[in-house]
């Protein structure tokens, strides 16, 4: 038996379908006996794994880990399994080991690391564990040899979603994962692509999954959504793709194909690409049920966007603000503030730019994060930006400390280039804006709480007074509105 472990990543009320392990399960289905253990659904996932090991011949424990809380849960369970059942091989895959492979492999409880797309690598690793092939022939695999030396077999070329079978939804109680959200009463999730063709300097996606994006065919996407609607009653969906719309013709084809499903949905998209879409395509997207689109606006300064290698302009972001208002779609703009080369200038220009966006489209949702570097391809574990070097932790335990957890979640990065005064300005501005325009995504917040925060913060926003917003901190603690960037906490 193979155990596919999805460590706990969020509160149970926020849990969604564990797409990462479902993708692996798809290639095992009908070939290998396996069990999915989802930490978001199990009261004690570690004990569940131990019970399976006690009653089955477990060939491999496969662990999927994102940076942050899920990595901590992966670390704790893996360490306990290694202590109690040291004969079971443990393999880590997913975003964390893909961008920090050395840190993952340095853990004594990790035997193998899969970098990037894992479906074929997993199947080949199973062949090797059964003595049918050599470990050094498996692309995408890192491991420690018999002498304890690190071995890296190189990157595996990515395949598109259409080259793999559907997720075996029947192996999970899907109904329990279709939870209420702003978009509907039964919200599903789906991933229709892998990879990213862009090279933003602060992002690790292209380092983990390559610089090409391979898409699922519109026909398959519609078929899977239809399956979720008809068999499980899904009425909404969140697409987890980094860039849901890359080609206008494919966007039209997909939206026209899914319009009859009457789904409300959310996705991520590029500012530059969608700013060039025709009104007809925007109308098609709206008819298909699109309610909100996440855009990485990143900065209000064109010089910063150029240094980030973002490939967009501030004028294009403003155009998106206008177009989304025109078609009744809520834009969710994310900003990464505190560029190391000139954080003070970047901060002030970006805060002014956010105010301009709000004038154009008051419904715009604003997400503000501190700049945090990630390893770029072919770097040896350190994050580099200009003359700034960040020595990342070299073990999962190092990443699990409060300092690096805050860094990972962009809550309190303690960036050496960011003055305390500038950091406070960013944080206080975020508090004022989030109070002046409370997110519509918190479906639990009563109407009076939004009105109270709006009234309490209006004078500060109008007068540009962001310092010492004690009353807003107190009000937010009392009301506890959802913060999109901290949803996983």
From TrEMBL:
PROSITE patterns attached to this UniProt entry: B12_BINDING (PS51332), RADICAL_SAM (PS51918)
Domain Radical SAM core: 182-414
Pfam family membership, one: B12-binding
Keywords attached to this entry: Iron, Iron-sulfur, Metal-binding, Methyltransferase, S-adenosyl-L-methionine, Transferase
The B12-binding domain, residue ranges: 4-136
Entry's Gene Ontology molecular function annotations: 4 iron, 4 sulfur cluster binding; catalytic activity; cobalamin binding; metal ion binding
InterPro entries per record: BchE-like, Cobalamin-bd, Cobalamin-bd_sf, Elp3/MiaA/NifB-like_rSAM, Methyltransferase_Class_B, rSAM, rSAM_horseshoe, rSAM_sf
SMART domains, per the entry: Elp3
CDD domains the UniProt entry points to: Radical_SAM (cd01335), radical_SAM_B12_BD (cd02068)
Cofactor requirements of the protein: [4Fe-4S] cluster
Protein name: Cobalamin B12-binding domain protein
